[in-house]
Design brief:
about 425 residues, alpha+beta, 5 strands, disordered N terminus
């Protein structure tokens, strides 16, 4: 694995790659050409400078260019950069213009050796640059030495500070990326948990509904077994006894009367069992949903819009209360169709308060006189609605007048107990 610093994006690293693979050779070639121009009349010195340039190029070629797999080895790269710094120092001592080669050395020091080792090599390159900049100083005096140390400090301190800031930035960038990645992972886990919880909640609701349906089926099975089956068995028994007593009119009449009584009792029990069933809309939802469903179906069937509103916090009521209010809604809508065919607006409001649950059904039809209508419309009717509501300790109010529309309000206590409790 490459040991290059990754403070910058990968694309930026690729753009910087020529700075440490090509540019150093170009700089060495330029410096060699410049040396030839300047020292063409000094063959001995020129030969030594060109030998130093060639040695530096070979050093880079062997330890870096030809063996890219070595770039991840800290020890090899440390020797490589230290050698380049040594070549650079010798060259700038001989010829200050070789200081132009120091940018390539900085790139190696900054990009190859990791923190904090890079500080030593950056300081070494800064010494090379400072030595090149100190050409002409008198090193034989204290003032010259102090000036040289000042130049070195001006080079070393800022470059090391830059390296430190670069490391801080790299760590901040890495921490930010880590935090973003962890945040994305946490969000993904949270979304998965929410989805799982939603699925679990849905399964629980379905299971609760299925349990309720199964309980009701079990109740009906018990009713059929305990009431209808036993009643039919008794009827069959009495009819068989009557058949056997065909020659005894008194016994025949007695068995026939017993069979008739059993049939009537069984019919009464069957009706009672059916009355305890929840209406279909309540099998799949709460009262608010059932009322909305009934209104929507009625509106679609009669092409008359019904505005449904539910106020307050919906809650589950005892089954008999929900059945009663739903039946009131159904009968009130049926009455609108039968007696208010000219109505253009129908409103249905289900209100949940702390003390009571109220169902209001209003229309803008022709209206009627409640005292005249009550008890004369047959079927379920207004009287039956009132009886159903008042049987649950509720109240039914009817507000209507001829030409003024009709309003029916059914009110049940919110804290009414379950049937049989």
């Amino acid at each position: 694995m490459d040991n290059w610093r990754m403070a910058a994006p990968a694309g930026w690293e690729r753009r910087l790659l020529p700075m440490i693979t090509v540019v150093p050779y170009v700089l060495l070639a330029v410096m060699a050409a410049l040396t030839i121009v300047v020292k063409h009349d000094q063959p001995g010195s020129l030969a030594l400078d060109l030998a130093l340039c060639a040695a530096a190029a070979v050093w880079k070629l062997v330890l870096f260019t030809l063996h890219p797999q070595w770039r991840g080895r800290v020890g090899v790269m440390s020797v490589f950069i230290a050698g380049l710094i040594l070549f650079g120092l010798v060259m700038v001592v001989r010829d200050p213009w070789f200081g132009v080669y120091t940018p390539a050395l900085y790139f190696y020091a900054f990009r190859i050796i990791g923190w904090p080792r890079e500080l030593y090599f950056i300081a070494g390159v800064a010494v090379v640059a400072g030595t090149a900049q100190s050409a002409g100083l008198d090193f034989g005096t204290w003032m010259g030495l102090l000036e040289y140390l000042g130049v070195l400090a001006v080079n070393v301190v800022p470059m090391c500070l830059l390296a430190w800031l670069s490391e801080v930035g790299a760590r901040y960038y890495a921490a930010r990326e880590t935090a973003l990645r962890e945040s994305r992972e946490a969000n993904a886990r949270l979304a998965a948990a929410l989805a799982e919880n939603a699925a679990l909640q849905e399964r629980l609701v379905d299971q609760a509904h299925e349990t309720g349906v199964l309980d009701e089926r079990a109740r009906m099975a018990r009713e059929i077994h305990d009431v209808l089956a036993q009643g039919l068995t008794g009827i069959v028994t009495q009819l068989q006894a009557a058949e056997q007593a065909a020659d005894d009119p008194a016994a025949w009449r007695r068995h026939h009367a017993a069979a008739t009584a059993l049939a009537r009792e069984s019919l009464t029990e069957a009706r009672r069992s059916v009355d305890e069933l929840r209406p279909e809309p309540l099998e799949s939802g709460r009262l608010a949903d059932a009322v909305t469903e009934v209104a929507a179906k009625w509106s679609a069937h009669h092409s008359l819009p019904v505005q449904v509103a539910v106020t307050g916090e919906t809650r589950t009521m005892p089954p008999q209360a929900e059945v009663a209010l739903l039946r009131v809604a159904q009968e009130a809508l049926a009455n609108v169709f039968k007696h208010a065919s000219t109505a253009t607006r129908v409103g249905l409001t289900l209100s949940y308060t702390d003390r009571q649950v109220v169902l209001d059904v209003r229309d803008d039809g022709p209206g009627f006189d409640p005292d005249v209508r009550a008890g004369h419309d047959g079927g379920f009717g207004l009287v039956a609605m009132r009886q159903r509501i008042e049987a649950l300790s509720g109240a039914l109010r009817i507000e209507s007048e001829v030409g003024g529309g009709t309003g029916i309000s059914a009110c049940l206590p919110a804290d009414m107990p379950e049937a049989g409790t």
